[in-house]
Amino acid sequence: MAERSGTFDGVHRRNLAKVLGLVHLDGPRSRAALTTSTGLNRSTVAALVGELVEAGLVEERAPDPTNRVGRPSPVVAAHPGVMAIAVNPEVDAVTIAAVGLDGRIPVSERVEVDHLVSPEEVAQLVATTLEHWRADLLRSARIVGIGLAVPGLVRAADGLVRAAPHLEWREVPLREIVESATGLPVAVGNDASLGALAEHLFGAGRGVDDLVYLNGGASGIGGGLVIGGIVVSGAGGYAGEFGQNRPGIAAAGDRRAEGGVLEDEVARARLLQVVGLAGADEPTLKAALEASDSPEVANELARQRRILSTALANAINVLNPAVVVLGGFLATIAERDHDALVDAVVAQAMSPAAEGVQLRVAALGEGRLAIGAAELAFAPLLDDPESGIAPA
User: Fold this and answer.
1) Is-contact 185 177, C-beta < 8 A?
2) Quick one: which of 36, 67, 274, 352 has the most CB atoms within 10 Å?
C-alpha cells in the first residue's frame, strides 16, 4: 500500500531523513542547530537523534566549548563506520574506494589493467577487494551497498549499461552481476553525472542551483547538469554526453580526427602521448604536464583549450549556468591558463548568457567520482533511515 503523506509513520520517516541528511551533507551539527534547521522542537530532535544513534547511523559527541549561558548542546555526526563502496571501471584501471557517510574516504585502490575489463571481471575484483578490506581495514564497517560510476550510457530505471563504448560494453545488466558477486545492494550511474552530483553537494558547485559539469577521463568526456537545484538526467538517464557533440574548430590546423567528436579532439590520450606516458592517474599526468617545458606539450594544451572553449561557450548559450565546473584532465587544461580559457569562452558565448558565469575546477579531486557513486548507494538509506543497513 502506498504511504499516505499525512500519516504519523510518514512524517516520522521524513523527519528522521531530514536529520540524517543534514549531518551527512553539512557535517557535525549541534542538536540546537538541528532544531533550528528542521523547525522541529527540541524534544522531537532529541528523540530522532536517539533513534539514529540506536540504529548506528549517527553518533553524539561532547559539546563544543562555548561561552553561552546554559547547557551546551551535544554535537551530532554521521557515524564514521557507515560506508558505501564506490567503483569506477575505466579503460586503464578500476578504482575502488570506501566512502563514509561522514564524507571520508578511508581506503581507495586503483587497480591498473592492461586490457578492457569485462563486467564479470569488475564484479569479481570488487568482491575480492571487499573481502580483503572486511578482514582488515573495514573489519568494523557497516556497508550499505555499492555504487558504480560507469563511463557510458546508463538507463536510470534499472541501472542497465546501454553502452560504454570505450569498455566495449553493450546492454550489460551490471547491477545484477555485481549484486550476485558481492551479496550487496548495487546502484549504477554515469560517471560524469555522479561527478556533477558530488561537486554540487560537496565541492565547487555547492550552493549553486544552475551549473554545468564536464569530466575528462580515460574514456573521454562526459558531463552532468544541475538546473534549478535539481540534477537533470534526461528521459532515460542519458543527459550530459558533451563528449559526443561535434566540436566547432575554427582553425583547420587544430583538427586531428576528421569528422570526430569533442572527445576525439580534446583527449587525455593525446596529453599522455606528448609527455611520453603510456598511462597515468590524474595527479601523475598533471605533474608531468606542469613539469614539461616542451613546445609540443604547450602547443597541444593550447590546441585542446581552444576547442574546449567553443564547447563550453555552446553549453553556456544553451543552458545559461551560473558556474561551469571542470574535472579530470579538463581541470588540468583549465589550470594551465585559466584566464585564457575564460577569455576564449566569453568571446564565443552570447554576452548576456556569459555575464557573471564562473569557470571553476573540481574541488573534490580524484575523490569526486567515488563520492558521487557513494551518494547513489547511500540514497535509499538517506531517504528512509528506518530501512536500516545491510549487515557488515
Assistant:
1) no
2) 274
Domain covering 8-78: architecture:
Orthogonal Bundle (1.10)
Asked whether residue 386 carries a pLDDT value surpassing 80, the answer given is yes
The helix (H) or strand (E) run that includes residue 61 is strand 58-61
Same fold, 82-194+368-387 and 205-363: yes
* Cα dihedral 34→40→42→44 (10° resolution): -110
Q: Say whether pTM exceeds 0.85.
A: yes
Distances (CA, A) of 287 to 221, 277, 283, 292, 293: 21, 12, 6, 9, 12
* CA neighbor of 100 nearest in space, from 192, 183, 23, 203: 23
Domain ranges of the chain: 8-78, 82-194+368-387, 205-363
Q: 158: which 3 cell numbers?
A: 534499472
Residue 149 pLDDT = 97
To 10 degrees, what angle do helices 31-38 and 42-54 make? Answer: 120
pLDDT at 387: 84
Separation between Cα atoms, residue 219 and residue 252, nearest integer Å: 25
CATH number at 82-194+368-387: 3.30.420.40
Query: Quick one: what percent of the chain has pLDDT higher than 90?
Result: 91
Angle at 198 between CA 279 and CA 390, to 5 degrees: 100
CA atoms within 13 A on the CB side of 68: 9
> Tell me, what DSSP letter sits at residue 292?
-
Q: How large is the greatest C-alpha to C-alpha distance in the chain, in angstroms?
A: 72
CATH superfamily, domain 205-363, is: ATPase, nucleotide binding domain (3.30.420.40)
